[in-house]
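Quick one: structure tokens for this chain, please?
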Amino acid sequence: MGVTTLLRFATAGSVDDGKSTLVGRLLHDSKSVLTDQLEAVEAVSARRGQDTPDLALLTDGLRAEREQGITIDVAYRYFATARRRFILADTPGHVQYTRNMVTGASTADLAVVLVDARNGVIEQTRRHAAVAALLRVPHVVLAVNKMDLVDYREAVFARIAEEFTAYAGGLGLPGITAIPISALAGDNVVEPSANMDWYGGPTVLEHLESVPVSEELTAAHARFPVQYVIRPQSAEHPDYRGYAGQIASGVLRVGEAVTVLPSGRTSAIEAIDALGTPVDTARAPQSVTLRLTDDIDVSRGDLIAPTAVAPGLTHEVPATVCHVADRPLTVGQRVLLKHTTRTVQAIVKEIPSRLTLDDLSQHPEPGRLVANDIGRVLVRTAEPLALDAYAASRRTGSFLLIDPADGTTLTAGMAGEAFTENPWTV
């Protein structure tokens, strides 16, 4: 069998939607739980007087989470089936943990939004859809959970799926896959449900195993942030000069004309070394070393891109941001902006608006953003940046704002407009 692909996905749901139980069921039924882990869960469940193992205990690892019955921090789980490997970001549902959901979903290929079949689409559901749209997560699954508590009625599922799909469409979210499940009973999580013969679609795991991944990385224009310059200057390689890094997006080819930014110098790719072996082409997210035909000045933080599709340079960065630090972000604040391998000095020129995720309305000129706020900012950098719009590339359209005093991450940014269909303009 060939190399299995990797799917990064995030889960999001309101309190008591059964998110931890769903994740536990996925791990349990896909045989991804160690025997001693399962025995420990069974023992705790028995002490609590429960007849069956509480699978939520497999995922709520923090003591505070177990005691409160909620998810607080992002927890990453790794599991695999014969068809694919998975990295799961289990993210909190509370509004005060919006920043944690942003962290978990920022690199996800897919988001699973859980809804309690008894409650339907609620404010938190809309908030999770909005965050997924902001982060441009390529695929979204609506998991309508606790179908056993509504007698597995198709009409309940259909109503919730229709309402969510209509709301998500207004945000510009791509195709939604709605799946009726019972995480507690195991219906349609890994095994098809015998209780919902009216549903003919995939189980959650079947969908996770078959959804296409990494199209975006190779479909976007090629971008190569230089991480390290290799100059052995040895007797064996006296003139070797290679530029090492990870291809952020697109495909690079030997012989291709390239531009180095921000200097604007041009050359061509003479050779590509992947794990020490020469190759003719390389694609994201491979880590490679490039050699250029011309001996030009290239250093860490530079961006190499095909000349025909090289990004423009800018000092002004309008963006949608999620503020993640406990200290606020204010107009006039001096920050460091980290974009791929490049870090430059910058200043927050404007904060035009703050987004209310419940109804997507905007609060104009808030003056500052506090923890978990999502808003629009305009940042001016001291040096030019080769920045793509986040809509074009999640990798090279994202950045961090950092406190220059102590290195604390303040804000996660997405350059350009927010939503695909309905950008909330300033």
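The radius of gyration is 24 Å.
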